Amino acid sequence: MMEEVSGEDSPAVSPLPAVSSAAPPTSSTGTAPPGTPAAPPPMGIQAPPPGPAQTFSPMQTPPPGPGFPGYQPPPASTMYSPQAPPPPVSTMYSPQPGANPYSMPVGTPSRTAMPTVPLGVGQSPLAPGPAEGVQMGITFPEASVDPQEDMRYRGGGSSGAGLWGWVTGNPLMQKVVEKTKSSVETMITTMDPGMTPYIKSGGDIDIVVSSDKEVKVAAIRAAFQKVFGKATITGETSQSNIAPQPVGYAAGLKGAQERIDTLRRNGVIHEKQPCVSVENFIAELLPDKWFDIGCVVLQDPLNGVALETFTQATPVPPEAVTRAQDETPPDYNLRWSGLAVTCGEAIERTTPGVHHADWHRAFTGMSRQDMIFSAAVALAGMYKQRLPGRHV
Question: What's the average model confidence in pLDDT over 300-307?
């Protein structure tokens, strides 16, 4: 009779025969009762072939051979039979139509049907499928978005809301945008002053100056663009029917108005076109002291606006006035309005290095253009107040 050695307390080897037929060894699990067939060896271990029994010590590895003395092989029905091979590929798991093919690793045989669970939010498609009956996916409800609200947020629609509507409706943001725009324009015009007329032209203010001289056109343009932000200012050549050097306030005002009337009469501008005219004259404000003054006139027949203002008074050398009077013939037909020779021409002849068009800078340190600009800013401010729908 053979005693089985427990697989938990001994190495995984073939069943050992008894040391001797007289005194078989005992194990910690006890001796099997007579008539009990031997248990099959552990998986993966082949049973020793039948043969004569051999005697060996417990610590000695059984020698190879056909058998050992006293070894009785178990019946064929109780011997270990190897595990059946894996089922063919056709019986392996295959996903059902429309099911998630990643619900379990591909190639893993399945003996029982496994439920197909759809992938949850954030679940890797290569992760093993969940256990049967376990819901792995977490579904978050989608937030309902009002199409009109979404359009307003994107700045569309007719409501005028959205991000752009918030920017344009916010006084602080308007100031920031205007300040940024003004800084950029200032930088551009500082680097290239010739860009000023192009950057600030436009808007609903269209003014024609009754002269093509840059000293007048540039001054009027800068003044109106400063007051209105954007303004289109152009110049047209015009002449007056008074003396080249007007004398007195009435003559100066007459000369400015004559320049505007000439443009309208010749069809150069429309009869309703706003126009600005500048005419310089001399006046004896104090005994034997003459001053040069510019009269600036604005006419806007469409809005019924007519304005006049004057530049600052610039002292004129007495000898220049005396020379202009001496060079004017006594029978000069326009003597009622002034002199035939301007004070600037007389100064140019008597003072070397001084040009007749800008003698103001040489005597006062301020150019004639700056003087016209200062007066034109005041004129544009008054004009803005009188326009319908305008306010300061």
Answer: 95
